[in-house]
Specification:
The chain is of the alpha/beta class. It has one domain: Rossmann fold (3-Layer(aba) Sandwich), CATH 3.40.50.300. It has nine helices and ten strands. Helix 5 packs parallel to helix 6. It is globular and about 55 Å long. The termini are far apart.
């Protein structure tokens, strides 16, 4: 059997008298998108920080890419990339310069070629030489994710990657995440948006009050509820659907003119 990309067993973490993680267990299969759901304060970011070797667990064990996060933190860091809740890009530099800078920090040999390939891959080639301060939120987030791939990590941690983004930008980021999984990269995604997990994840876990209370595929989670009652109702479009339809129509009109 293929070893898990992420393995967590009985992980606990407290800050003073506050117990944040109370015995977390989970596994993430290689090349999959795993979504960790939870409300604010549930402990999602704390768990990600432990898996990224930025914090130590008080109890339990965790391994990432086959490396123990406590015993071999250097090996874990070589195997992963972490993107936090807010885009860690330099607004003064151009998109290309941001990627080259990360390449230099990670000792990548052909930084120019890597930057060009990632800019093309994430639809940023036309904006490569613009200052990132002029980018839209979705563009900046896509660049942030592209920067996380410099050095070819096996596993990417995305901690609430669409926080604060408008509907159009969220869809752009979703496409970028699907692109990662399509290349065989394991994606560990934390989010409080249920539709985000539903759209992206192969497997979903819910973290509540420091523990995983459910863990399974979307179909398995839906099966926990009573069978659906079939009713015929008139479906009204959501505000998000209206927004995207209007914006899309305007884009199409501009292209035609």
């Amino acid at each position: 059997m293929t070893a898990a990309a992420v393995h967590v067993a009985g992980v606990e973490k407290s800050f003073g008298d506050l117990r944040v993680l109370k015995g977390v267990d989970l596994e993430v299969a290689p090349g999959s998108i795993f979504a960790l759901l939870g409300s604010n304060g549930a402990g999602k970011t704390t768990l990600v920080r432990i898996l990224a070797t930025l914090a130590r667990p008080d109890a339990g064990s965790a391994s990432v890419g086959g490396h123990d996060v406590v015993a071999a933190p250097g090996s874990v860091r070589e195997a992963i990339s972490l993107t936090g809740q807010f885009a860690a890009v330099d607004g003064i530099l151009t998109g290309r310069e941001n990627l080259r800078l990360v390449g230099r920090l990670r000792h990548v040999a052909d930084r120019d070629a890597v930057a060009d390939a990632l800019l093309e891959r994430f639809g940023l080639a036309d904006a490569a030489d613009r200052r990132v301060g002029t980018y839209s939120g979705g563009m900046a987030r896509r660049l942030d994710i592209a920067m996380s791939l410099v050095g070819a990590p096996q596993i990417v941690f995305l901690d609430e990657p669409t926080t604060g983004l408008d509907p159009e930008a969220r869809l752009e980021v979703w496409d970028a995440i699907r692109e990662l999984a399509g290349k065989g990269i394991t994606v560990f995604l934390t989010t409080q948006y249920l539709d985000e997990a539903e759209q992206l994840a192969d497997r979903i876990a819910i973290l509540h009050e420091g523990r995983i209370i459910v863990n399974g595929t979307l179909a398995e989670l839906k099966a926990l509820l009573p069978p659906a009652k079939v009713e015929y109702v008139e479906k009204q479009p959501t505000l998000e659907e209206v927004f995207l339809a209007v914006v899309g129509a305007r884009h199409a009109t501009k292209e035609e003119s």
